[in-house]
Design brief:
The chain has two domains: 225 residues, Alpha-Beta Barrel (TIM Barrel), CATH 3.20.20; 124 residues, Lyase, Ornithine Decarboxylase, Chain A, domain 1 (Beta Barrel). It is built from twelve helices and 19 strands. The strands form four sheets. Strands 8-7-6-5-4-3-2-9 form an eight-stranded parallel β-sheet. Strands 11-14-17-16-15 form a five-stranded antiparallel β-sheet, with no helix packed on it. By secondary structure, it is of the alpha/beta class. The longest helix is centred in the middle third of the chain and has 22 residues. The structure holds pyridoxal-5'-phosphate.
């Protein structure tokens, strides 16, 4: 814990509520992979993984170092590394992380390493590109992959997977169903030639909502755990998990004609009371929220941000709010506030959450 008073409280009970919301949409035997990449969507992957380790089957991170952090915190759950790079393969093995092998370059590098060590039946995952065109083998690569796999006992395929490009968008239903069908076909071909049947998974959060029939053996839930569904109606059934708070550092009385902040962006027209709050764009609060576009809550009242958002601070107008230095400030504590910040910042809640920087204290509460 650092001593920055700005803190992100992570609501463990809300995460549990959200997990159960999605579990109810799934068959009891379908496995759950909790996506905790990007510091658990801007929170704290270690605290979240510790909380969820007895409640889910798998974790996924984007990069090897994120998985290493979980292992160093004694998380023993299987961890899928979605985007390993060749220079990290040795540490992936050292920390018993499970690589997604998505191209021949990384697949061959891993097989070579597995042969040198040597490993025995080391769990790997193979990703197929079915239309996102980001990472993954093509279905035409299957024969070559299979023939390499048949020659080795060093690795064992634990799962085959793919990722949907537009699972949240029902106008892209035909495209998505085509992706799912292609994936099912690829899996069938793979099974036929491999001789054993790895797990299959293709759905992210919005996939679970819109295409539950394609749950296969496991689903990968990220944003849903953190309180966001496909639309407002669904989000309202989920609970907010990220509560960002701070305290008032200082209060100023500004005379008419005086200005506040960099570039003198706010000019007081009448006597104005402002509060300085220790959170700025380096903490993940977008500069686009400056000049009254964004607000915070103090004593349950809206205090608009005046002037520009600084790197480390904002100033807010508290002329009509009864408060004192040291009082609590809510940056956001519900999904509407997060969605509002995302809208004003011209982005989506994914980015608003993951932007919360490492300087902010993170604390999971149950
Ligand atoms: C990030 C990610 C997910 C999680 O997606 P959400 O929309 O947050 O549920 C699932 N699968 C892959 C491959 C990802 O990169």
């Amino acid at each position: 814990m650092n001593n920055h008073v700005t803190i992100l409280e992570i609501d463990g009970n809300a995460i549990l509520h959200n997990l159960n919301y999605f579990k109810e949409k799934l068959k009891p035997e379908t496995k759950i992979l909790a996506v905790v990449k990007a510091f658990g969507y801007g929170s704290d992957a270690v605290q979240i993984a510790k909380f969820l380790e007895d409640k889910v089957d798998y974790f996924a991170v984007a990069y090897a170092n994120e998985g290493i952090a979980l292992r160093e915190a004694k998380i023993e759950t299987p961890i899928l590394v979605l985007h390993p790079q060749t220079q990290n393969l040795q540490s992936i093995v050292d920390y018993r992380l499970e690589p997604n092998l998505y191209s021949f370059k990384i697949f061959n590098a891993f097989l070579k390493l597995a042969d040198e060590i040597p490993l025995m039946n080391y769990p790997i995952h193979i990703k197929f590109n079915t239309g996102l065109n980001r990472l993954g083998f093509w279905h035409t690569d299957i024969p070559k992959i299979i023939s390499s796999l048949k020659e080795t006992t060093h690795v064992k395929v634990h799962s085959l997977f793919s990722h949907l490009a537009a699972s949240e968008d029902l106008e892209e239903k035909d495209f998505t169903i085509n992706q799912i069908n292609n994936f099912a076909y690829i899996a069938q071909q793979f099974y036929k030639h491999l001789g054993y049947e790895p797990m299959l998974h293709v759905l992210n959060t919005s996939g679970v909502v819109n295409y539950p029939k394609a749950q296969f053996d496991m689903v990968r839930i990220g944003i849903g755990l953190y309180g966001f569904g496909n639309d407002e109606k669904e989000t309202s059934q989920l609970k907010n998990t990220h509560n960002l708070k701070s305290i008032i550092s200082q209060i100023h009385l500004i005379e008419p004609g005086e200005t506040v902040g960099y570039n003198r962006a706010f000019v007081a027209k009448k006597p104005t009371k402002t509060a300085t709050i220790p959170i700025g764009h380096a903490d993940g609060l977008s500069r686009r929220l400056g000049n009254k576009k964004g607000f915070v809550l103090i004593n349950n009242q809206k205090a608009p941000i005046v002037g520009n958002v600084c790197m480390d601070m904002i100033m807010v107008n508290i002329t009509k709010i009864d408060c004192k230095e040291g009082d609590e400030v809510i940056i956001f504590n519900n999904q509407e506030m997060i969605q509002y910040i995302a809208d004003v910042s011209e982005t989506i809640p994914y980015e608003t959450l993951t932007a919360i920087s490492q300087r902010v204290n993170k604390m999971l509460k149950v």
